[in-house]
């Protein structure tokens, strides 16, 4: 049977959007969503909520979440499915695709860079990576467990192409954090 | 007033909100870059804050407290009608006190009180393109932004100095955001520009007719353009407010009769009223 989407679509989408807006405005700060959502495996609550909030028929989606999640996403978001290189939103629950393979926008239209919704094992603020850049007063620390090896150097390479690039929304359980393309990341 | 149930929460339909929300996230991710969006027709004319209203509607939640100002004042037509609009279509609490608000929609001012991390400020923007008066072709200005090629604006400021002896731009004074994008701060007085620099609150900008959204994340460098030998100097009338006595706030000049009488008062009404209340308390004590 198809699992339901948001119990209160208008309020839930707004609450989730504000959490994501806070997350992307203050990279590395972890936001906690309080929503009654029962998404299909392997989607965590935060991952599913972010997709329901931002993805719709206008945004080609690419994902690796399997058949049950596929039909759930098609039903609730109604988004066309696309290859990784043509997607506006890319969902990765397992090993994410290479950042360089995602649309990065152009110098004139950097907003066409994709958004990568990346489900990780856990998110903890206060330890781990040192983040600096817009949205951060001094430095934020973020510990995202389950990130692919070599991510920091991939991110640094994309940072060199600013304003082109991919923005990442990190999800784990009911937690959300974000890495907008302008953020600088150093190993903690 | 309770919410008018005939409208979706905050007036816009959910598809439109999603589209605006996606544009907002990209705008925050690329500070100062203008993101195009499908602005809707709103139940008020262009020039009255259609862009700001759409941004506010996409961000607003039932627990937000909304403040709306027009040139610093809470009690002018534009501010009153937008506040009542959101009270009707979203049922949200409204306030005139800067410190109580979670979302502040503004036309042409930044409040005198420093904003906090818990607040979002939404600017109404008539013309988002800072280069518009120098280069009317949008295809050209897009390329100039892509190349970060802003020599034209420096030439304009230089010509100001050559002609007037100083930079003669007193509002809509262009700024560089995070040393990458030239941005119009909307027609706020140049006096307010320094408040944008590393502001703790998130700053969102909406232009309805021009269909552009842009943003400045918290704690982001916002530098007013200037020259080493002609540093940026915000202009302020050389007077104190006649109502509250403030010597540091931005002042409006009010003509009081037809014989040349005039007075200066704070442009920020909430700031002025709370100072007057403080003065009255001091006198009573």
Within CATH, the superfamily of chain A carries the name Bacterial phosphonate metabolism protein PhnH
Strand content of chain B: 15-25%
Which structural category do the helix and sheet elements of chain A fall into? alpha/beta
Q: What distance lies between the first and last C-alpha atoms of chain A, to the nearest angstrom?
A: 45 Å
Cα-based radius of gyration of chain A, to the nearest Å: 16 Å
Helix content of chain A: 25-40%
- pLDDT average of chain B, as an integer? 96
Q: Look at the helices and sheets of chain B and give the structural class.
A: alpha/beta
Low-confidence stretches of chain A: none
The main sheet of chain A comes to: 6 strands, mixed
The CATH architecture of the largest domain in chain B can be given as 3-Layer(aba) Sandwich
Succession of helices and strands of chain A: HEHEHEEEEHEEE
What is Rg of chain B? 20 Å
The CATH fourth-level homologous superfamily of the largest domain in chain B: Bacterial phosphonate metabolism protein PhnH
Helix content of chain B: 25-40%
Shape of chain A: globular
CATH architectural type of chain A: 3-Layer(aba) Sandwich
Count of the domains of chain B? 2
What name is given to the CATH topology of chain A?
Answer: Rossmann fold
């Amino acid at each position: 049977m198809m699992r339901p989407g948001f119990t209160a679509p208008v309020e839930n989408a707004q609450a989730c959007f504000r959490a994501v807006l806070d997350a992307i405005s203050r990279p590395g700060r972890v936001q906690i969503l309080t929503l009654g959502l029962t998404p299909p495996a392997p989607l965590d609550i935060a991952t599913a909520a972010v997709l329901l909030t931002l993805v719709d028929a206008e945004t080609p989606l690419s994902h690796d979440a399997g058949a049950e999640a596929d039909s759930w996403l098609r039903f609730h978001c109604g988004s066309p499915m696309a290859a990784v290189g043509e997607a506006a939103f890319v969902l990765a629950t397992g090993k994410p695709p290479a950042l360089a393979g995602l649309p990065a926008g152009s110098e004139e239209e950097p907003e066409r860079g994709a958004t990568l919704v990346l489900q990780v094992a856990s998110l903890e603020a206060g330890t781990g990576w040192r983040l600096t850049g817009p949205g951060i007063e001094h430095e934020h620390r973020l510990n995202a467990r389950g990130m692919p090896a070599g991510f920091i150097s991939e991110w640094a390479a994309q940072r060199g192409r600013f304003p082109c690039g991919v923005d990442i929304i990190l999800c784990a359980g009911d937690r959300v954090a974000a890495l907008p393309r302008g953020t600088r990341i150093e190993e903690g | 007033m309770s919410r008018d149930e005939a409208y979706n929460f905050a007036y816009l339909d959910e598809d439109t909100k999603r589209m605006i929300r996606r544009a907002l996230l990209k705008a925050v991710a690329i500070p100062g870059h203008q993101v195009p969006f499908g602005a809707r027709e709103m139940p008020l004319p262009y020039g009255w804050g259609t862009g700001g209203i759409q941004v506010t509607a996409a961000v607003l939640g039932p627990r937000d407290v909304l403040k709306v100002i027009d040139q610093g004042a809470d009690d002018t037509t534009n501010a009153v009608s937008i506040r009542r609009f959101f009270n009707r279509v979203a049922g949200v609490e409204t306030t005139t006190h800067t410190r109580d608000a979670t979302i502040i929609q503004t036309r042409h001012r930044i409040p005198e009180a420093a904003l906090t991390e818990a607040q979002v400020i939404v600017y109404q923007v008539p013309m988002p393109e800072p280069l518009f008066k120098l280069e009317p072709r949008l295809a050209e200005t897009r390329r100039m932004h892509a190349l970060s090629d802003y020599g034209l604006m420096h030439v304009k400021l230089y010509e100001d100095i050559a002609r007037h002896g100083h930079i003669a731009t007193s509002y809509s004074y262009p700024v560089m955001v995070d040393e990458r994008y030239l941005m119009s701060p909307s027609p706020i007085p140049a006096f307010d520009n320094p408040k944008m620099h590393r502001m703790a609150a998130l700053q969102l900008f909406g232009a309805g007719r021009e269909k552009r959204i842009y943003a400045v994340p918290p704690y982001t460098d916002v530098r007013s353009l200037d020259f080493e030998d002609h540093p940026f100097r915000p202009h302020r009338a050389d007077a104190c407010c006649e109502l509250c006595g403030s010597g540091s706030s931005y002042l409006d000049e009010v003509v009081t009769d037809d014989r040349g009488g005039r007075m200066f008062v704070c442009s920020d009404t909430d700031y002025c009223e709370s100072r007057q209340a403080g003065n009255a308390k001091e006198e009573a004590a």
